[in-house]
Amino acid sequence: MNFKQEFLDKLLSAKKIVFFTGAGISAESNIPTFRGKDGIWNKMNPEELASFDAFMRNPDLVWEWYQQRRDIVHKAQPNPGHVAIAGLEKHYDVTVVTQNIDNLHRRAGSTKIFELHGNIERNFCIECHTFYNSPDLETTNTVPKCKKCGGLVRPDVVWFGEMLPQDEFSGGEKAAEWSDICFVVGTSAVVYPATYIPMSAKRGGSYLVEVNIESTELSSYVDYSLFGKAGEILPKILEEVKKFKN
Ligand code: BV8
Ligand code: ZN
Prior knowledge:
Rossmann fold, 2 domains
């Protein structure tokens, strides 16, 4: 793959790099995306399941949907895209700001991660906020009850209409603002306020690089678009870096 010289120059001089990622980076780990042709939301619209109202209306249905997704995540492995991002930590100050709840960046070895939309492996009681990691819950398909107070236990993910965890969002935003390069990988860039992150990077003077199999809402806004699979492109970027950084 031949990268344009301007990008290679940026890679050479950069110190801080941010990866803003979405479901597309986990597609090659066989985790379905949200809005793609195989998207999980093609079969239903997100507000139907990924909202507190939906959970209160039908807790067993929403819990079962997350249980199914957790099973997929447990079978999934980090792919070369996740691994390349972790590998770049040897050469740069790398921060991952992800919309994904699948824990694959952490499992790939990334150490600085802001999870804007929570993590499917964590759950909490809606009454007393006791936290439960998935393995501590008997994995039934009916919503678990809190061992302390009997309240309903929900996934620790950000549903539509819910605030993002403030520390995660502001931490990700600050990393983006101070970054030299901000990669936008595998996201349709339609969900807010998450999509403000790459915009903060641009405002902070960062060089914006999009990695996606197709153009998105952000494509006209980035400095450089790399069309292709994240699992193929990101390892090639790591190879380039190794040429001049070793
Ligand atoms: C908020 C966690 C307000 C749960 C998710 C009506 C009511 C309430 C709010 C709204 C509303 N209308 C609009 C809003 C705002 C709403 C929003 O942005 N809606 C969108 C749909 C318009 N936002 C919210 O509700 C947020 N909260 O606004 O609160 C508020 C304010 C103050 C006080 C109180 C409240 C909360 C948003 C978070 C929702 N939770 N997930 C769960 O996962 O179940 S969002 C969900 O979408 C995932 O997190 C996902 O990551 C995210 C974004 O999707 P993508 O990651 O981009 O995935 P997608 O499938 O779309 O795209 C995949 C891309 O990858 C594609 O571009 C594809 O081409 C590419 N690709 C595919 N394969 C590859 C690839 N690229 C590279 N390589 C490949 N191999
Ligand atoms: Zn409780």
